[in-house]
Here is the input.
Amino acid sequence: MDIISELESEFEALRAGQTDNKRAGVIRVEHLGGVSFLGNIVVGIDFVAGTGNQALLVFPTDAVAMITANALPELQQKSLSDLLAAQRNPVRVHFSLRNQVRKGWLLSEHGPWLRIAVERKVVWCPIAVVTLIEVSAVENL
Here is the structure.
């Protein structure tokens, strides 16, 4: 009897468009830098994040053109700033400057500004020009 009740509740959840991350599977995200396929999706106030290419990929909402998925997970009340402030691993940042994508390492976040190490210098970029943030494990050399 428990199995029938469980199946009925899953069916009702599917009809209502409520699926969890595991059932939602991998989704397609079209963004300013191309297309990525993400698993374990999190949708925040101003970002979409998920696992892909052995890293956590984070796209600011302004950099996302379209998401292809049966359903999105429930909106989390977390901002991109909250996510960046919680990071301890080195964070790779892709940002757009004069229609060219540049890469650097996030040093710190100061409100709407990011301090980024790029080509042996430090630059300050508004978060609005960021197209992708990549958080990955770093191997000790």
In short: The beta strands are 27-31, 34-43, 47-52, 55-60, 64-68, 91-97, 100-110, 113-118, 121-126, 130-135.
